[in-house]
Amino acid sequence: MEDKKKNHEKGQRYESLSADYLRSQGFLILSKNYRFHRNEIDLIAKEGDCLVFIEVKARSRSEKGYGFQAVDRRKQERIRRVAEHYLLQNQLSLWDTPCRFDIISIDEGELRHYRNAF
Q1: What is the pLDDT of residues 39-80, one digit of tens each?
Q2: Structural domains of the chain in order of their starting residue, each with its CATH number
Q3: pTM, two decimal places
Q4: Residue 111: CB partners within 8 Å, gap ≥ 6?
Q5: Residue 112: pLDDT above 90?
């Protein structure tokens, strides 16, 4: 249980760091940890007219792989479903709302932003 709590706290710290980075790049943060059923999107932001759904993944050691590698097809599909729910809940069009999916990968302390990651 202690490890789960530490991981949650670490995740919150990386998400806050990512939100600060995005703000410095001109993004407007709309939501953090947006949940639908058991799934969530870490950050939802706007960049200009584009709605951006962002997954944050971090790895402290590269032998475990890189953060972005953890966002496999299954995870991408879950994020898409949560994004659809967000659009519907906010009365935005599924077809006409400009949006994209980004990943922020923090590996060994280095932040990388992958735009249009999937």
Answers
A1: 999 999 999 999 999 999 998 877 778 899 999 999 999 999
A2: 2-114 (3.40.1350.10)
A3: 0.91
A4: 17, 18, 21, 104, 105
A5: yes
Q: Rounded mean pLDDT of 75-97?
A: 97
Over 80: is that where the pLDDT of 14 sits?
Answer: yes
Per DSSP, the residues of the chain read -HHHHHHHHHHHHHHHHHHHHHHHTT-EEEEEEEEETTEEEEEEEEETTEEEEEEEEEESSGGG--GGGG--HHHHHHHHHHHHHHHHHTT--TTTS-EEEEEEEEETTEEEEETT--
Instruction: Read off the pLDDT of each residue in 7-12 and give the average, rounded to a whole number.
Output: 77
Query: Nearest Cα to 41, choosing from 89, 91, 84?
Result: 84
Q: Given CA atoms 73, 102, 117, 95 in this order, what sign does their dihedral have? A: positive
CB 98 within 8 A of CB 49: yes
